[in-house]
Design brief:
The complex is a heterodimer of chains A (271) and B (251). By secondary structure, chain A is mostly helical. Chain A has one domain: ABC transporter involved in vitamin B12 uptake, BtuC (Orthogonal Bundle). In chain A, 82% of the residues lie in helices and 0% in strands. Chain A contains 11 helices and no strands. The N and C termini of chain A lie far apart (40 Å). Chain B is built from 8 helices and 9 strands. Chain B has a 6-stranded mixed β-sheet, sandwiched between helices. Chain B has a 3-stranded antiparallel β-sheet with strand order 2-1-4, with helices on one face. The chains are: A mainly alpha (271), B alpha/beta (251). Chain A binds chain B through residues 36, 150-155, 157-158, 160-162, 164-171, 212, 215-218, 220-221, and chain B through 55-57, 75-84, 88-90, 93-96, 99-100, 103-104, 106-109, 111, 139, 155, 159, 161, 165.
Chain lengths: 271, 251
């Protein structure tokens, strides 16, 4: 029995579990909006775009996450602006802008003589490397996003289902869309630390997509997504300790298994 | 809002364009409180565009548009209810009938306000009005097209608006539902509600509307439904559409 508790005795593991809970909650709650608004592409996009911010932060010698957050938010706002003003579909806009920002990051990196940033950890995440300072950062952003979800609850719900009628009846649809994009950008930055650029999209889509299979109302979907999200991040982290595997990859693979289980359950119920 | 002299909707020389295509050209009419105007015209005649312009969803290229005494985009939250065609949304959204009708209350509510008894009352009344109360716990994907249409109308009624815009609410619904919707709309009109509605069903315009507007990018005719139907303003474009495959206006 005590062998199963081994992972919890190290301070770095305790911090990792706290981060895992926060990231699991945040990604799956925001993921509910991502899945319902058919924005699955955005996690991948903004995560890649933030790479440019990391390189710029390295060049200018300031915190990587501040750099990543600034570029992620600017890209998110840019996506919203080009989509609305240019009357261009959202997925096309995301495709154009995120590759541009990612290319900018690679371009800047290629100008550096000796680049010492641990790229591997940004691509795949390093939840075991979460510092007490990182935890404060994760906690503060989580709180900010949670407040925004509460304040914009009805607006986000209405515009997710029927943005046209919401607008006609006086809801500030554009403002809500921009705020949602910023919230997503910040969520992605929080998740970057634990699962990395490559896998952040999975955490933003998979738990919510699994919950979507099994629920018929919005609140149950969001609650189930949050439960599944935390189960994946915490469970994946725990398993990775014993399997000596990459924590980010283990988390995402666990989420994928849950997704297929959810589809299976849905078919069983329908049968 | 006083139902005094001023019109609920005042459209003057309205022009709306999509890029270079003129969707509405020099449209002028007034909608009064306690009046239902039906809009008929062939596909692509600008019926939906006219409703969307009044709802503040499109920006006119020229002309003036006064809605409830102000510009469309300045109409107070909740004052205008717009009922789109049911194809406009994804019905697999995780919501039941009650949830969707409840959304009608959202535009007036501040985030700190709870969904209280008055809100629940408004939703119940709206559900009863369209005869959907018994199906309130059903998921919206499990409804027929006519039932989804009634859910949309109920959402608009729950909003308790001062102006109601309906985009072809009777398309694809059975005769019974159509008559139920007509009664609901007529009782709102009798209570002073201004209603603007597009339709394809020319046979029933006499019982639905106080006035009928024939639209084909321009206003071809407006007046008492029977007079307009007799004048042949609509049949002429229908025949034109039939023979040439698209609508034409003789200038």
């Amino acid at each position: 029995m005590s062998g199963l508790l081994v992972p919890f005795q190290y301070a770095f593991m305790q911090r990792a579990f706290v981060a895992a809970i926060a990231v699991g909650l945040l990604c799956s709650i925001m993921g509910t909006y991502v899945v319902l608004r058919k924005l699955s592409f955005i996690g991948d996009g903004i995560a890649h775009a933030s790479f440019a911010g990391i390189v710029i932060a390295y060049m200018r010698n300031f915190d990587y996450y501040v750099g990543a957050a600034i570029v992620a938010v600017l890209t998110a706002l840019g996506i919203g602006y080009v989509h609305r003003r240019g009357n261009i579909s959202l997925d096309t806009t995301i495709g154009v802008l995120f590759t541009a920002a990612f290319a900018l990051g690679v371009f800047l990196m290629s100008q550096l003589k000796n680049y010492a940033v641990d790229l591997q950890s940004f691509l795949f995440g390093d939840i075991l490397g979460v510092s007490p300072k990182d935890l404060i950062f994760i906690g503060a952003l989580s709180l900010l996003i949670a407040c925004a979800v509460i304040v914009l609850w009805r607006g986000l719900l209405y515009t997710s289902f029927d943005p046209v009628v919401a607008k006609a009846s006086g809801t500030h649809v554009e403002t809500i869309e921009y705020v949602l994009l910023v919230m997503l950008a910040l969520t992605i930055i929080v998740a970057l630390q634990s699962v990395g650029i490559i896998l952040v999209a999975a955490l933003l889509v998979t738990p919510a997509a699994a919950a979507y299979q099994l629920t018929k109302r919005f609140v149950p979907m969001m609650v189930l997504a949050a439960v599944l999200g935390v189960a994946c991040t915490v469970g994946g982290l725990y398993l990775s300790y014993f399997l000596r595997s990459s924590s980010g990859a283990t988390i995402v693979l666990l989420a994928t298994i849950l997704f297929f289980v959810a589809i299976g359950l849905k078919h069983l119920r329908a049968a | 809002m006083t139902a005094g002299e001023s019109a609920a909707v005042d459209v003057e020389h309205l022009v709306v364009r999509y890029d270079r295509t003129v969707a509405l050209d020099d449209v002028t009419f007034e909608l009064h409180f306690g009046e239902a105007i039906g809009i008929v015209g062939p596909n692509g005649s600008g019926k939906s565009t006219l409703l969307k312009s009044i709802a503040g969803l499109l920006t006119p290229a020229a002309g003036t548009l006064r809605v409830l005494g102000t510009q469309p985009k300045r109409v107070p939250a909740g004052a205008l209810a717009y009922v789109p065609q049911i194809e406009a949304v994804d019905w697999t959204f995780p919501a039941n009938v009650w949830d969707v009708v409840s959304m009608g209350r959202f535009s007036r509510m501040q985030f700190w306000q709870r969904f209280d008894d008055a809100d629940r009352q408004a939703v119940e009344t709206a559900l009863h009005a369209v005869n959907m109360y018994d199906l309130r716990n059903r998921h919206v994907a499990e409804l027929s097209g006519g039932q989804q249409q009634r859910v949309f109308v109920a959402r608009a009624i729950a909003q308790r608006p001062q102006l109601l815009l309906l985009d072809e609410p009777t398309t694809g619904v059975d005769a019974e539902t159509e008559e139920a919707l007509r009664r609901v709309v007529r009782s709102l009109v009798d209570d002073g509600m201004p209603v603007l509605m597009t339709t394809h069903d020319l046979d029933r315009v006499g019982v639905w509307f106080d006035r009928l507007l024939v639209l084909d990018r321009r206003v071809l005719a407006i007046g008492k439904p029977d007079d307009v139907v007799e004048s042949g303003a609509y049949t002429s474009i229908r025949e034109h559409t039939h023979t040439h495959g698209h609508a034409r206006i003789t200038r």
